[in-house]
Amino acid sequence: MIVDDARAWTADEAVTVLYGAHYRSLVRLAGLLLRDQAAAEETVQDAFVGMYRRWRSLRDPERAAAYLRAATVNGCRSVVRRRGTAHRAAPLLAVAEDGPDLAVGVVERRAVLDGLAGLPERQREVLVLRYYGDLSEAQIAEALGISPGAVKTHAARGLASLRPVLERTP
Amino acid sequence: MTDIDDTSGNRLRRVLREEAATMTPSDEGLERIREKAAEEPSAARRWAPLVAAAAVLLAVGAALLFWPRGGTDQTAAPVATATAGSSASTSPSGSTEPSVAARAVAAYFVGTSEGRSRLYREFARSTVADPVQAAVNTMLSTPADPDYSTPWPAGTTATVQRSGSAVQVSLSADPSGQGDLAVQQVVYTVTGADTAVTTVTVETPAATYPNQVRAPGVDVIAPVWLLSPAQGATVTSPVKLSGTAAVYEATVNWDILAADGTVVKQGYATATVGAPDRGDWSASVVLTPGSYEARAYMLSPQDGRMQWIDSKTFTVK
C-alpha cells in the first residue's frame, strides 16, 4: 500500500512511485547522452537499483529524484568510457538515414546531435540537463557534483560551440 | 542571457525534445529493476546497526558515502548534504518494518471479461530466498485485487527444481479449469522472477507440460492493466492513474466511481503505443477526500461497449 508519508515508504514503494514519475524521462535523458536506447534503459535501471538500496538514507522523493539524476548521468559517463570514443558519434537515427522520405528537419536535427556528441563531456551533460531536463542551475550542479558557477560556464561554452549549427535549424 | 542565447537555447530545446520523442522506453523497466534489486543483498542492510546508534550522523555520512561519484570534480553537492541531514533527523528511524529483508515479487493472476480470461500481474512481498520459489508461492496465494483469481485450489503447494535455464515446477493439485492459461500463469510468473529461465516444465498430478515458453502477450495478457493506485491504497489528490495497455488506437478509457457507484470523473489516456504492442498510459485526476473505485477499460471497436475493466478501490486522504 502506498501511503502518504514518503518517509514511511518501504524501498519497494519508493521505487514504484518514483518509477512512475521519472523512469521514462530519465531513459530519454540517458538516451540523449548515449544515443543508444538499450544502454540508456540499462543505465537508468541500475540507477533505480541504487536508489532502492539507499532508500533508508534518502527517505525523500525529491532527494531520491536528485540521486536518480546523478546516478543516471554518472552511469552514462561510465558507458561512454567503456565503449571508448569509437561509438560516441553513432547516429541514433540510423533508420531514417538518407531515405527518400527524410522528414523536413531531420538532417538539421542530426547535425545538432552530432555537434552535441562532439562537445566535451561536461558541456554535453549540462546542455542536456538544462535544455531537455529543464533543471535549474542548482539541480544541474547537484547532479554533476560541480558548482553552479561551473554549470553556467559549461552551458555558455557548449551553446557557443553549437551556435553555428543551431543557426541552420529552422 | 542575451537574445542570441535564448534563440539558440530554444532551438536546442526543440531538437532534444524531438529526438527524445523518438525513444519509447519499454514497459518492462519496473520488472527489470525489481529483478536486479533482488539479485544482490542490500547494501543498506549493512548500515542498520549504525542507524540505531546515530541516526542523524549516519544519514549525513551515508548521503556523502552513497552519493554517486561526481567524476573528477569533487565539490559534491552541499545542498544535498544539508537536505539529507534535515530530512533524516525528522524521519521515524526504525519505526517502519525492516523492508530490506522482504523483497517485492511479481506473480500473475487470472481475470475475466465477457467469459474470456487473461493474466494480470500483482506485486507482493516475500521473504523466501529463491526468487522463483517466492514468485510461485505468491501466485498460489490469494491476490490482493478481489477481481483476480488463481485457478490453483487453496492449499496448493509447489516445488521448484532448476537445471541451467530450465525450471520444473511441480504442483500438488490440478488447476480448476483454465488449463492452458494456468500453465502460462506459471510460465509468466517463473520467467518474470528469473529472466535467465527460458523453459518451464509444469507438472501437476494429472498432467505434465514439458518445456513451456511464454505465449505471445497478446494471447494471454489482459489488454488493459491498471497498476496505480494499487488495490486498497491511500493516496493524495491529484491521483495519478497509470498502467499498461495493448489496445486499439492506443486509447485507454478510465473513470472514477464514488462509494455509491456514481461516476464522478471520466476520461481517456493515450498509451505510448497501440495494439498489438503494449504501451504505458497515465492520467491525473483531482478528487476530494473519500473512498473511490478507479476503472480502466477499452471500448469495443465494434459497438463501444466496455471491455477488459481493471478496477482498484482506493482512498483519498
Strand content of chain B: 25-35%
Number of structural domains of chain B:
3
- Percent helix range of chain B: 25-40%
Low-confidence stretches of chain B: 41-100
Helix content of chain A: over 70%
Structural class of chain A: mainly alpha
Order of helices and strands of chain A: HHHHHHH
Summed up, the helix count of chain B is 8
* Arithmetic mean of pLDDT of chain A: 82
End-to-end separation of chain B:
44 Å
Report the average pLDDT across residues of chain B.
Answer: 79
Low-confidence stretches of chain A: 86-104
How is the main sheet of chain B built?
A: 5 strands, mixed
> In terms of quaternary structure, what is this?
heterodimer
The percent range for strand residues of chain A is under 5%
Per DSSP E runs of 2 or more residues, the count of β-strands of chain B stands at 14
Query: What is the succession of H and E elements of chain B?
Result: HHHHHEEHEEHEEHEEEEEEEE
- Computed over alpha carbons, the radius of gyration of chain B is 23 Å
The strand line-up of the biggest sheet of chain B is: 8-14-13-10-11
Most extensive contact: A-B, 73 and 79 residues
